[in-house]
Amino acid sequence: MMEEKTLLIVEDDRPLRERLARAMETRGFIVTIAEGVAEGKARAKEAPPAYAVCDLKLEDGNGLDVVETLHTVRPDCRVVVLTGFGNIATAVAAVKYGAVDYLPKPADADDITAALLAAPGSKPKPPENPMSADRVRWEHIQRVYELCGHNVSETARRLNMHRRTLQRILAKRSPR
């Protein structure tokens, strides 16, 4: 485990970024924050951190670009990727880029700390409140909808679903 507790947080959601920074500082981390990919890469190059928490989908690009830069400038950096759109493909990609864990939002500061400080090769505990099947389905539909550029007809075609059925699902709130 690293003695140095420098932490880079790359998150475009300002309230979440500031709340997480304060929580991690109370846990003994020396925190640096960034809003997007460009700023995250710049901060990583200026002072390579021992730890990082990076959002997957940032306004100016993909957080995996920051993860890649972090591992270029500091190969032993332990990175946790956060995302509001969890799916298997992005989780695998995050691990391939060098992330030690992949957590869905909203992630608790205790969960993030545990993931950052976990012994290499240790298995994470199963989630206490896993997503319901309805929520997983909704997340998948939202992800495909986003990948199709918010085109309802294209999304319905790719999901093999009637367009009106999809419109009704998209109009509802997300399930718990």
Euclidean distance between termini CA atoms: 36 Å
The fraction of residues assigned to DSSP E strands is 15-25%
| Contiguous helical run count | 8
Order of helices and strands: EHEHEEEHEHEHHHH
Record the strand order, biggest sheet.
2-1-3-6-7
Can you say what the CATH homologous superfamily of the largest domain is?
Response regulator
Instruction: Assign an overall shape.
Output: elongated
Average predicted local confidence, pLDDT: 86
Q: Find the count of extended strands (DSSP E, 2+ residues).
A: 7
Q: CATH class of the largest domain, please?
A: Alpha Beta
Class based on secondary structure composition and strand pairing: alpha/beta
Question: What name is given to the CATH topology of the largest domain?
Answer: Rossmann fold
Provide the low-confidence segments as ranges.
Answer: none
Count up the domains: 2
Give a short account of the largest sheet: 5 strands, parallel
CATH architecture of the largest domain: 3-Layer(aba) Sandwich
Helix content: 40-55%
The gyration radius over C-alpha positions equals 17 Å
InterPro entries: ActR_PrrA_rreg (IPR047772), Bact_response_regulator (IPR050595), CheY-like_superfamily (IPR011006), HTH_Fis (IPR002197), Sig_transdc_resp-reg_receiver (IPR001789)
Modified residues (4-aspartylphosphate): 55
GO molecular function, one term: sequence-specific DNA binding
Domain Response regulatory: 6-120
